[in-house]
Amino acid sequence: MSVPATPEGAAAPPGQPRKAATAAWIGSALEYYDFFIYGSAAALIFPEVFFDESDPATATLLSLATFGVAYAARPVGALVLGHFGDRLGRKKIMVFTLMLMGLSTFLIGCLPTRDQVGTLAPVLLVLCRVLQGVSAAGEQASANSMTLEHAPPGRRGFFTSFTLSGTQGGQLLATLVFIPVAAMPEEQLLSWGWRVPFWLSVGVAVAGWVIRRRLDETPAFAQQAAEEGVVKLPLVVLLREHWADVLRVIAGALIASVSTIFTVWALAYATSDAVGMSRTAMLWVGALANLVALAAIPLWATLSDRIGRRPVYLIGAVGSAVTMFLYLWAVSTGSYPLTFLLGILCFGVVYSAANGVWPAFYGEMFTTRVRLSGVAIGTQIGFAAAGFAVTFAARIAGPGGDDWSAVALFTAALCVPPVIAALSARETHRVPTEALGVPPARATTEPEKVTA
């Protein structure tokens, strides 16, 4: 069977691209608020609440490992949610993932501590963290697919970037919530204060549901479902026709290691006895870096609409390898001005180049019928490795947890696969939406149809 090509952007009702981008931004911000308050708690609170306080180094290592557990669950979630997203539509998955994240995060705030129920406490923590990972697996891929398929000609980079600027907004919100919490007296912080940010996820879930339930399905998916029918087994088609692109996305997704090292390991290192910087100050580093990223991401994405995805992505990947080294060095000196300046440069400016462009770059590698599966599976396998980068960093940093140069070199090494993936990928910023994922020869000779 074949599907008549949809003229790019013609089927989208007026204002729908902006509405889709707004829903993606707000939904992702709410979703990743939940996800990243866990990261802050894993670095600052959970070693003392859920693990053995008599061995602080091991407690921190185990706590950071639970942060990575969600990333291990992501590939499984991607297989399931990617399948249903390409069969049932983008909107249903966007609503489901948000509700699941809100519920699992609220439950974390209700968990008993290790002093109360012993080893059952960390077990329950891991179970809730797995649910967070499953939710996050479908969130970005569905939001990216929604915005890309609604975007007008020549603006796909800009509109899809709202998903990632939304995640930075959620991370900023999570950091701002934790700043007053971290400043609480130790006894109140460890007894009930840390639970408050998790309980607020109820409001997150309700607000997200109201926003996303009003969003229309994309014209591209609706037309495909009506005229061609959906693919019964998206994974089979994906691996048969797009296996090389899936590998590229997996390699490219390792760039997320920069985010996890910056957000979690560097925070734990800076506030450890080895450096002794204050919790509040380091949370402000993250807050300001994310604030800058909110502006930088759409600017980098707009640039990619003009000069291409690959050059902008490469700036982010190569630049992150260099600036992460500088940032961790600044932290090691204990200098607040240097730490603030290089933290904003590394995470707020340079990393935003790759972070802002990958939603369009990855999504444009696939056809409509397997786009959500391709982006979800590829990114979540790569993100799984990125999530455990924090655990490996804690090991690489040595018994004292202060070998920052080894962690910087490790992070730089994880930036190499994304560079290779980008160099081997097809430039797609000027390819019409209906021709995305189609081999260049077929797109040229058969511009009106996409063969099933």
From TrEMBL:
Keyword Calcium: no
Alphabetized PANTHER family for the sequence: SHIKIMATE TRANSPORTER
Keywords associated with the record: Cell membrane, Membrane, Transmembrane, Transmembrane helix, Transport
Annotated InterPro entries: MFS, MFS_dom, MFS_sugar_transport-like, MFS_trans_sf
PROSITE patterns: MFS (PS50850)
Name of this chain's protein: 3-(2-hydroxyphenyl) propionic acid transporter
Domain of life according to the entry: Bacteria
Primary localization: membrane
Membrane topology reported for the UniProt record: Multi-pass membrane protein
Example of a GO MF term: transmembrane transporter activity
Membrane-spanning intervals of the chain: 32-51, 57-81, 93-114, 158-180, 192-211, 249-269, 281-300, 312-330, 336-362, 374-398, 404-423
GO CC annotation: plasma membrane
Localization (cell): Cell membrane
Coiled coil: none
Domain Major facilitator superfamily (MFS) profile: 20-430
